[in-house]
Automatic annotation (TrEMBL), chain A:
Physiological role: Acts as a sulfur carrier required for 2-thiolation of mcm(5)S(2)U at tRNA wobble positions of cytosolic tRNA(Lys), tRNA(Glu) and tRNA(Gln). Serves as sulfur donor in tRNA 2-thiolation reaction by being thiocarboxylated (-COSH) at its C-terminus by the MOCS3/UBA4 homolog. The sulfur is then transferred to tRNA to form 2-thiolation of mcm(5)S(2)U. Also acts as a ubiquitin-like protein (UBL) that is covalently conjugated via an isopeptide bond to lysine residues of target proteins.
Modified residues (1-thioglycine): 96
Metabolic or biological pathway: tRNA modification; 5-methoxycarbonylmethyl-2-thiouridine-tRNA biosynthesis
Signal peptide span: none
Glycyl lysine isopeptide (Gly-Lys) (interchain with K-? in acceptor proteins) crosslink, residue number(s): 96
Pfam families: Urm1 (PF09138)
Gene Ontology process terms (BP): protein urmylation; tRNA thio-modification; tRNA wobble uridine modification
Subcellular location as annotated: Cytoplasm
GO cellular component: cytosol
Protein name stated in the entry: Ubiquitin-related modifier 1 homolog
UniProtKB/TrEMBL annotation, chain B:
Gene name of the encoded protein: mocs3
The organism's place on the tree of life at top rank: Eukaryota
Pfam families with a match to the protein in the record: ThiF
Residue span, Rhodanese domain: 271-377
Protein name in the entry: Molybdenum cofactor synthesis 3
CDD domains: ThiF_MoeB_HesA_family (cd00757)
Length: 96, 379
């Protein structure tokens, strides 16, 4: 399976300063989102992983989209990621 | 339009375009709440203020800009802190609230206040190249801010405009869209951005509009059995203050860690004392202008070990440096144009336990421009 990941709102800074990523898992057809998120934390972030994951879910203040819709519409962290999905991690902004 | 009453919370980068467009559209009554004064360093993004109104309250200054454009508009200046003590009394006089604030505590305050008072809330926010926009409390299925973000973000993850910088046109885009949403709500046209979120990436020049969850029945403020029935202490809830300007460097750093531009220039810069001048603005701003021989590490990247190593090498190894930097960024994360000096070896500022001292230069580059080099651009 292949998933596309987008980071915005400053989160990209944790991920090698890149907004777009593609992850391929050759031996998998699906993957629980919780597993993917923990995998991202453990293998893709060099520093300050606590800014991404807290209590084995995405930390407060980050909105997650599954194929451009709020992840709550699809089960939140319990969602099962499928081949071709696009996941967006959006850090909420407070400035103005 | 003339009967409409709109309250703008925050007369900064977002509040300015909102106010100007609503005034020109003929919104009858515009209230502005802001406790800060106009500063030169903000003018690049706060287009409703002028150089000549430096020091004037932002709420007053923006009201003047409204009157200059449309003298028929009634402006109401609330030159007060928008807090749980004042918010409800202010909000009840308006039909629509615009959240143009610059901090997370005020965002929760605006949300709860609008839910309790039954007012639609047009919420915009921006940082660096990014902007976000949505409408809360508009229609029965519309989620509120707390439905989406029930828990505030950890305080040390929040970057503010004065640290992260925001480009003027970004707040211009988002503020203009907030004005448009308000006009749509006033005119009762379809397509109001409720239950959807606009995400603007100015660098990639992309807009994305995404579907948000519906109202959560168990939401503590807009749910079926709300537990928040009056305003709470939002600074405590968010562990962060209502105003980012209350965080003026001089108010929060030990005075013995502050040095003036003049002292730095006279005793260190011109005498070539061993030191590093660290400029912690965003890279894009550093690229526009910088003091010769300064190095740039943006404040939100100070904790990165690459950067600590970089400084470490520059000053020859000093084992206390990482912990000092760590402490500094934890404590003083929200400084405006923070410049840090790192002195070492025989420097006049040497401290006993370490041969490295970190100092903050008061007034940063604005002070540099005022006191040392008038040709240094203020942007
Ligand atoms: Zn809610």
């Amino acid at each position: 399976m292949k998933v596309k990941i987008e980071m915005t709102g400053g989160l990209e800074i944790l991920f090698k300063n890149q907004k777009n990523h593609t992850y391929e898992f050759k031996d998998r057809d699906t993957m629980p989102l919780r597993e993917l998120v923990v995998w991202m934390r453990d293998t893709q972030i060099q520093e300050r992983p606590e800014l991404f994951v807290e209590d084995s879910t995405v930390r407060p203040g980050i909105l997650v989209l599954i194929n451009d819709a709020d992840w709550e519409l699809d089960g939140g962290i319990e969602y099962i990621v499928e081949d071709g999905d696009t996941l967006s991690f959006i850090s909420t902004l407070h400035g103005g | 339009m003339l009967k409409a009453k709109v309250l703008i919370v925050g007369a900064g980068g977002l509040g300015c375009p909102v106010a100007l467009y609503l005034a020109c559209a003929g919104v009858g009554t515009i209230g502005i709440v802001d406790y800060d004064a106009v500063e030169l360093g903000n003018l690049h993004r706060q287009v409703g203020h002028t150089e000549s109104r430096q020091g004037v309250s932002k709420a007053e200054s923006l009201a003047m800009s409204i009157k200059e454009r449309n003298s028929d508009i009634q402006t109401i200046v609330h030159e007060t802190m928008f807090t749980s003590d004042t918010a409800m009394e202010i909000v009840q006089h308006y039909d629509i609230v615009i959240d143009a604030s610059d901090n997370v505590a005020t965002r929760y305050l605006c949300n709860d206040c609008c839910i309790l008072a039954g007012k639609p809330l047009v919420s915009g926010s921006a940082l660096k190249w990014d902007g976000q926009l949505t409408v809360y409390n508009y229609g029965p299925t519309c989620p509120c801010y707390r439905c989406i973000f029930p828990t505030p973000p950890p305080a040390d993850t929040v970057t503010k405009c004065s640290d992260g910088g925001v480009l003027g046109p970004i707040v211009g885009v988002i503020g203009s869209m907030q004005a448009l949403e308000a006009i749509k709500i006033i005119s009762k046209v379809d397509g109001v951005l409720a239950g959807r979120l606009v995400i603007y990436d100015g660098q990639q020049a992309t807009f994305k509009t995404v579907r948000l969850r519906t109202r959560r029945p168990n939401c503590v403020v807009c749910g079926d059995a709300p537990t928040i029935t009056q305003l709470i202490d939002y600074t405590q809830f968010c562990q962060s203050p209502y105003s980012e300007s209350s965080g003026k460097a001089a108010d929060r750093i030990d005075t013995n860690l502050i040095v003036s531009c003049k002292d730095y220039h006279q005793h260190v810069y011109t005498t070539n004392s061993p030191h590093i001048l660290l400029d912690v603005r965003p890279k894009i701003q550093f690229d526009i202008c910088s003091i010769p021989n300064s190095i740039n590490i943006p404040v939100d990247e100070l904790n990165k070990s690459d950067n600590i190593n970089k400084i470490d090498q520059l000053i020859s190894h000093d084992s206390s440096l990482p912990s000092m930097l760590q402490k500094l960024t934890n404590q003083y994360h929200h400084l405006i144009l923070l410049l840090i000096l790192i002195f070492h070896s025989d420097c006049m500022y040497r401290e006993k336990e370490s041969n490295v001292v970190i100092k903050h230069i008061r007034d940063g580059l604005l002070g540099w421009s005022d006191d040392i080099d008038p040709s240094f651009p203020i942007y």
